[in-house]
Amino acid sequence: MSFLHRHKGLTPYLLLLPGIAWLAVFFLVPLGFLGYQSLESGSFESGYTFTWSFSNYWDAITTYDEQLLRSFLYAGIATILALAVSYPLVYWIAFRGGRWKNLFLILIVAPLFVTYLVRTLAWLNILADEGPVVSAFQAIGLVAEDGRLLATGIAVVAGITYNFLPFMALPLYVSLEQIDARLLEAAEDLYASKRQAFLRVTLPLSAPGIVAGTLLTFIPAAGDFINAQLLGTPRQSMVGNVIQSKFLELIDYPAAAALSFILMALILAALLVYARIVGTERLTG
Amino acid sequence: MSESMTSPDVRLEEVVKEFGEMRAVDGISLEIPRGSFFALLGPSGCGKTTTLRMIGGFEEATSGRIFLGDRDVVGLPPYKRDVNTVFQSYALFPHMTIADNVAFGLQRKGIARAEVNTRVAEILELVDLAGRESRKPRQLSGGQQQRVALARAIVCNPRVLLLDEPLGALDLKLRKQMQLELKRIQHEIGITFVHVTHDQEEAMTMADTIAVMNGGRIEQLGTPADLYERPQSAFVAGFLGKSNLLAGTITGEGLVRLVDGSELRASTNGTRGPVSIGVRPEKISLSNGGVNRLAGKVKESAYIGVATEVVVTTSVGELTVFHQNVEAGGVAPAPGSQVTLSWAPEATFVVDRGDPGDRGEEHVV
């Protein structure tokens, strides 16, 4: 105690220490190891050796450009859909939910109590060829008579949207819930119609929630492989599927590590572009 | 616009507002003339804010009619009413600069950018905030935020400006300063102000007409002097300043008999039966000079600077007297001494016999 009393300036660093140690041991060290692996060459049979093999990266990009592109496309569409679905939902909860607010929030989070895998398997039934959704879509002509939803990109995007919806909805709810309803009265008082009040006041004030929600949805969605594996076919496979099979089935560590780094770099690049567009002030809240 | 210059800016006809079982506003009719500074004064829960919000369009009247000028505005949303509001909490847009906050209403009205900029600059000058255009609201003090809220509302040049306890969040000194500032601005721009407050001193300082509200109704409407000199109910007598109220019965024109049989003169205006008569503490002198006289014994006296407050026990109850400290040293009768209280009949008012609990002792001038 007396040591800390004499060196008060140290306290914040001591408080940071456990977190930094955790990050160092469980993030930086594995990351470094992954980087090391990504530059190895050889084969599963003969073993891998470190050879500064940068060609792993080029090979990965040229071979799996299709999967990389698809990952970003599916994750992007799913993020937009999740935003479109959850914004009106949490808007209603935040402004009209009254004393039921917490109940509705629990309902949004409730699916997370079931494991990811089981939730996604449930969508196999929902989208099954003889299931109600396909029949209904066939009846209104959205799906051809012999058409199906399973094993299509639509099924994969639907699965991703569903699975990541709570990560969009919760930060959005927090930002909308904080908005003082009197600000909307003030906007209306100053000749703004309901629509203008929404566009000029509600929307900008919920921007931090939109930004946080899109990041929390897009980043994990871009690396997802469960949805493509269960609801799609190899023709819908995403970069996550490739990494997963390289690591666990083909035991091709250098290619898997190189692809992981490429995915990370592309996500970071996408984030930087996003930050440019929305402004860093909103990214940092 | 074929509207005559004499039509009032705001007219309420039998306006009622119910929230479920609760009747917040119970049939209010009033007219607010153009260019006046009008105050709705009353204790919390009297319906004054609800009345203001109905004029602004934030609450829909359960029944009755509301006119702005010649236009019946019942059913119109706030953005279609030619009024602007200064909110109690200011409700400044936190994500916009001061200039953008002030420009908001003008932009929604579709006014050209150059004119918007000119008017924003003018109005910020008027409220003494020039140079703060690019700040955000949270970077300003409470008093400055209050002036931004005012600027944002008056820059639109509305028919009526509504002020909902706008000074409530300021400290006493700043509040006094802003009272005079608001009055100056109102005088300068000539817009009709409707001001809601629970502070009788604030209402009397600023308004030229005050409606005292109680229980969803208007108890009395008049100039500050009217309300103070000639209150028509025990509630008004107690809410505005301090009054001595004595139970009595009118026995003839201008004559009231008190419970001990003594008779006092007051202007009774044809009223009959049991009443209370009142007199303000500063209107009573500790001498034989006036027509109305009561004998009593000093219970206590307290020197309060401009006056000495003397409480006198008489056979009809306790009376408070503000004895002016005209001479240095402030000579006031000591407790226990016998005194005669006297005052003029013109300073005596007659009200219905009200519940003395309504006297609102905390609203002493």
Description:
The complex is a heterodimer of chains A (285) and B (365). Chain A is mostly helical. Chain A is 74% helix and 3% strand. The longest helix of chain A is centred in the N-terminal third of the chain and has 42 residues, at 55-96. The mean pLDDT of chain A is 91. Chain B is of the alpha+beta class and 365 residues long. Chain B folds into two domains: 3-226, P-loop containing nucleotide triphosphate hydrolases (Rossmann fold, 3-Layer(aba) Sandwich), CATH 3.40.50; 230-364, OB fold (Dihydrolipoamide Acetyltransferase, E2P), CATH 2.40.50. Chain B starts with 9 loop residues before the first strand and ends in a 14-residue tail after the last strand. The A-B interface holds A 180, 182-183, 185-194, 196, 200-201, 204-205 and B 56-58, 77-79, 83-85, 87, 89, 91-95, 104-105, 108-109, 152-153, 156.
Keywords summarizing the entry:
heterodimer; A: 285 residues; mainly alpha; MetI-like fold; 2 strands; 74% helix; B: 365 residues; alpha+beta; Rossmann fold; OB fold (Dihydrolipoamide Acetyltransferase, E2P); 2 domains; 23% helix; elongated
Output mean pLDDT of chain B: 89
Tally of structural domains of chain B? 2
Biggest protein-protein contact in the assembly: A-B, 18 and 23 residues
Query: Which CATH-level-2 architecture of chain A?
Result: Orthogonal Bundle
Return the average pLDDT of chain A rounded to an integer.
91
Coarse structural class of chain B:
alpha+beta
Structural class of chain A: mainly alpha
Please provide the count of β strands of chain A.
2
Query: In whole angstroms, how far apart are the ends of chain A?
Result: 36 Å
CATH architecture of the largest domain in chain B: 3-Layer(aba) Sandwich
CATH class assignment of the largest domain in chain B: Alpha Beta
Q: How far apart are the termini of chain B?
A: 45 Å
Q: What's the helix-strand series of chain A?
A: HHEEHHHHHHHHHHHH
* CA-based shape of chain A: globular
CATH topology of the largest domain in chain B: Rossmann fold
Discrete helix count of chain B: 8
Q: What proportion of the residues of chain A is helical, as a percent range? A: over 70%
